[in-house]
Amino acid sequence: MTALIIEPHSGMRANLHGMLNLCGIARIDHAVSAGAAIRPLKNRSYDLIVCEYDLGDGQDGQQLLEDLRHNKLIPLWTVFIIVTAERMYEKVVSAAELAPNDYILKPFTADTLTDRIARAIEKRAAFLPVYHLMEQGNLEEAISTCRQGEDKHRRYAIDFMRLRAELHVIRGEADAAQAIYRELIETRAVAWARLGLARTLFMQNRFGEAEMLLSALVEESGKYMDAYDWLARTREATGQLEQAKETLAAAVAVSPHAVRRLRRLGDLALETGDIATAEESFQKVVAKARFSEFRDPEDHVRLVRTLVKKGDTEQASAIIRDMERSLGHLPKTGACRALSSALVRDRLGNAQQAVEDLNGAAAACRTTDGISDDMKRELARYCLQHALDEHAADIMRDVMSNAADDAAMARAMSVFEQAGRDELAQTVAGESRRQVVELVTGGADRARQGDYQGAVDLMSAAARKLPDNPQVAFNAAVAVLKYLENCGWEPRLGEQCRAHIDAARRLSPGNPRLSLLDDLYQGILRKYGIRPGSG
């Protein structure tokens, strides 16, 4: 087994190292901070990570785990244990809600650590075949293996049922997942089973039923954080933005350290006109993300927008300077700085300088990947206010092409409609639809002509540009599959294909053609003798 110890104090690192040696683990690496841990984790995986909660200046263990999970830097089978002397209620809840395999309060003995690790590794061994199949993307076989696990490992039967239901959710099979959750609810009062049932109702657009179930969960257990998040999401889906904001505010009061929840609270607060809550939330997001390896300059833009609405241009300017100083090396920062500067100058009445900044932001948007649709909509809105219609149309053409569903398209259309430009909205919408058709058709034509590499290049670029369009994700996967089938196996493209399939499933879980992608992918793995998890 391999292990990584993340601990800033040399004495404690040595103690943990010795304890792990007693567990029979000899291959052990060390990291003194969250940032130092990211580097080895980008290059290799570990069986076990033992992480101190208080990592000193920088991220704490909870924030690191959130980053690792969100950016998929640790595989499903890595055991993550948080070690902490922190007994403050809110921080322990925050650590627990991210579901580490275990967390241990100091002081503890070697026997305690050995016992906890042994239990976690024993459970991991039972689930390892399923994890490998999931990593490979063979979800149908993973579901079957979960059924076998329920019979073979009776002590983990409930956990196998839970994972099987989650796999059905991932595959878009709401009815199958719902049946499992109802069976669990009938046999025992399990909060996560009721949450799972609410998620399946949400998938079927049965928002009223989902809201009732989630409201009851929140009232019964004020510490079940996922229930708050799904309740807010359900209320947002039905247009109850004020209620969604209040739900997230209640969650943050219980567990105030989850950055992504704070960011969503800030967005809702800004949208509902609650400037005070928006400012507080975004200030915390910027502060908490300061030491993350995955900082996003768009968080600074959100805070600048809020401060400008408040009228505090001096503080907004300070935030822009901080963005330039600390995030100037990131590709997105140029566009973010230009938009932020335009907002401040517009508020100060410097219209000409604001237009110059908007021109710069629009140019940066055309050449920079990864800028969110939210930021593009905001940029287009200001372009329309300053009669920069061509920029607005260019920006929103990509946003509309990237729309994952009707709701996303409606949000994009509203940018023009709120500016009284309904005709331009229709024109750009038509152009966006033609853009997607041309991309997909172009990829298919190249593959038919035998230019499999050209098809992969075209569709991969399209997927980077339009990451939320399910049609593009699906056809990008098809392009890579045709290349692998006709040109031979390449591990890098195998991983890329898996990512495209996962994106297509996430964006359009009910698409009946997803099973065809899985079948093609599994057939190619069998053709080249690729084993699960081997790339």
How is this fold's topology laid out?
Elements: E1 2-6, H1 10-22, E2 27-31, H2 34-43, E3 48-52, H3 61-70, E4 79-84, H4 89-97, E5 102-105, H5 110-136, H6 139-152, H7 157-170, H8 174-187, H9 191-203, H10 207-220, H11 225-237, H12 241-254, H13 259-271, H14 275-289, H15 298-310, H16 313-327, H17 333-347, H18 351-367, H19 373-385, H20 389-401, H21 406-418, H22 422-448, H23 452-465, H24 470-487, H25 491-507, H26 514-528
Parallel strand pairs: 1-2, 1-3, 3-4, 4-5
Question: Briefly, what is this?
Answer:
This protein has 535 residues and is mainly alpha-helical. It has helices at residues 10-22, 34-43, 61-70, 89-97, 110-136, 139-152, 157-170, 174-187, 191-203, 207-220, 225-237, 241-254, 259-271, 275-289, 298-310, 313-327, 333-347, 351-367, 373-385, 389-401, 406-418, 422-448, 452-465, 470-487, 491-507, 514-528; strands at 2-6, 27-31, 48-52, 79-84, 102-105. The chain has a 5-stranded parallel β-sheet, with helices on both faces.
